[in-house]
């Protein structure tokens, strides 16, 4: 983890949809909650402009965040985010407390490498098809990666990279694999109008 993220927050005592709308409209604040661990959940607010600025960095979604609440600070991860369907506004945020000594479960973005230069695309005219763009992992907070690389350098048409093919960092495991779900991550599909398609069509016509 190469960056440190800090976000300032304030405790809020009022709850409910009306109070949340007022916060967003009149004070330009985002209602949020901190939960998890041995402490009780806390209702907080963060400034709209502050969280939007942080969200510009992809690593914010999968990074330990220091959340300053008054004189206290919490180590958290962003667990859920509600966005306005039409405007560039955050409606609500959920932050999960993390313990340095306990495993956490969260989703990490996938970075796809060599998509345009792999044999399946460059030489065989195939198309890259993504099945997932993030992976749910389990690890200690200190081992949480900002992203996981998926290298397509040697992938050909008709081949699929599965979760079990990914090189996960030390101390990081896949939640899906732990449940014996070796899902496909990305594949190179056959281009339409390829010779094999044409042969198949000719064979069906002949029959």
UniProtKB/TrEMBL annotation:
Q: Which InterPro entries match?
A: Rbsml_bL25/Gln-tRNA_synth_N, Ribosomal_bL25/Gln-tRNA_synth, Ribosomal_bL25_b-dom, Ribosomal_bL25_C, Ribosomal_bL25_long, Ribosomal_bL25_short, Ribosomal_L25_dom, Ribosomal_uL5_bac-type
Would you identify the family this protein belongs to, as annotated? Belongs to the bacterial ribosomal protein bL25 family. CTC subfamily.
Large ribosomal subunit protein bL25 beta domain location, by residue?
Answer: 105-192
Q: How does it assemble?
A: Part of the 50S ribosomal subunit; part of the 5S rRNA/L5/L18/L25 subcomplex. Contacts the 5S rRNA. Binds to the 5S rRNA independently of L5 and L18.
What the entry lists under Gene3D superfamilies is as follows: Ribosomal protein L25, beta domain, Ribosomal Protein L25, Chain P
Q: Which GO terms describe its molecular function?
A: 5S rRNA binding; structural constituent of ribosome
Q: Name the keywords, alphabetized.
A: Ribonucleoprotein, Ribosomal protein, RNA-binding, rRNA-binding
Per its UniProt entry, which superkingdom is the organism in? Bacteria
Task: Report one GO cellular component.
Answer: cytosolic large ribosomal subunit
Residues of the region (Disordered) are 187-207
Domain (Large ribosomal subunit protein bL25 L25): residue spans on this chain:
7-95
Protein name per the record: Large ribosomal subunit protein bL25
Listed GO biological process terms: translation
What does the UniProt function comment say about this protein?
A: This is one of the proteins that binds to the 5S RNA in the ribosome where it forms part of the central protuberance.
| Segments of skewed composition (Acidic residues) | 196-207
**CDD domains this protein is in?**
Ribosomal_L25_TL5_CTC
């Amino acid at each position: 983890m190469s960056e440190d993220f800090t976000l300032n927050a304030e405790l809020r005592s009022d709850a409910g949809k009306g109070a949340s709308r007022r916060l967003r409209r009149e004070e330009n604040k985002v209602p949020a909650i901190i939960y998890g661990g041995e402490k009780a959940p806390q209702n907080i607010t963060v400034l709209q402009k502050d969280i939007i600025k942080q969200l510009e960095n992809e690593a914010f979604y999968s990074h330990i965040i220091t959340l300053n609440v008054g004189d206290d600070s919490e180590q958290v991860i962003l667990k859920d985010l509600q966005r306005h369907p039409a405007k560039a506004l955050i409606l609500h945020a959920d932050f999960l407390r993390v313990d340095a000594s306990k495993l956490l479960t969260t989703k990490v973005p996938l970075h796809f490498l060599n998509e345009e230069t792999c044999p399946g695309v460059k030489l065989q005219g195939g198309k890259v098809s993504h099945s997932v763009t993030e992976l749910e992992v389990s690890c200690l907070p200190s081992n949480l990666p900002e992203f996981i690389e998926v290298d397509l350098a040697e992938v050909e048409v008709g081949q699929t990279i599965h979760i079990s093919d990914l090189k996960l960092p030390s101390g990081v495991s896949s939640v899906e694999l732990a449940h014996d779900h070796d899902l496909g991550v990305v594949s190179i599909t056959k281009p339409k109008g390829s010779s094999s398609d044409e042969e198949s069509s000719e064979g069906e016509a002949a029959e």
